[in-house]
Amino acid sequence: MTSLSTQATIRYLIPGPEKPVYFASEGGASAQLNINAEFEDVQVNIHDARELDPPATLDHEGFQLHKHKSAIRNFYSIASEKEIYQTELAELVLPIVGASSLFVFDHTLRSDSSEVREAKQTREAAAIIHNDYTNASARKRVRDLLEPDKAKARLLNRFAIINVWRSISGTVLRSPLCCCDAQSVNEKNVFASERVAKDRVGELELVSHNPAHKWYYYPEMQADEVLLIKTFDSATDGRATRSIHTSFHNPLAPEDAPPRESMESRMLVFF
Prior knowledge:
Elements: E1 6-14, E2 21-23, E3 38-48, E4 63-67, H1 82-97, E5 101-111, H2 114-120, E6 123-124, E7 130-131, H3 135-145, H4 148-154, E8 159-167, E9 177-180, E10 190-196, E11 201-207, E12 215-217, E13 225-233, E14 245-247, E15 261-270
Parallel strand pairs: 2-10, 3-12, 5-6
Antiparallel strand pairs: 1-3, 4-13, 5-15, 7-11, 8-13, 8-15, 9-12, 9-14, 10-11
Helix pairs in contact: 3-4
């Protein structure tokens, strides 16, 4: 099998004196990055994760690929079929992570095409290196989403936040997602950033450059594949607690490659 490892430019934070503020976009053609921080473009090696032996896992690298054929025919209609898909996600994720229950709380549709974003009112591909939660915002998410007594009980035990990312329109050639091996991430390069959305304020993590970072992607992801990404884990036993990630311009994609259309589903996972 031919390796599809490549080199590409990805965007790292240039740390400044102020805490960055990220303003979350709303769907549409004009959806784009809006953040009061400076970034630098760095060329890195992005390895073909399909070549990893043993394969990457959530607890070691922080990401994991799985086959998954969904009954959902049109993910743009996910609002009317959430219960079906959330049952599918529970059946997929719980055995993989060994958890007792989960709670799906978000489905985000994205495209790297302004035409698709306008037609479908979706968001842009996230093109800066980031992680979705900090320790504080992950715990706040539990408190925001659950009844106070339930949240208090859940926070006494281990919990995690997992993203399930998939293509919703054919093979991913343009703007694929790449993930950094969690074992290569140093905390000194991770910075809390305020995240301001229409309905709430939270935090995410932005990342400065470190040449030790090891980047991977799964080339040509298919509609029957999903990428699980750990964005938070309260465990402190040495396992991966997050995988920083970003989309990138794929130099191996044909010039006439179709736009990327994807959906990530976020879930609280309780142990």
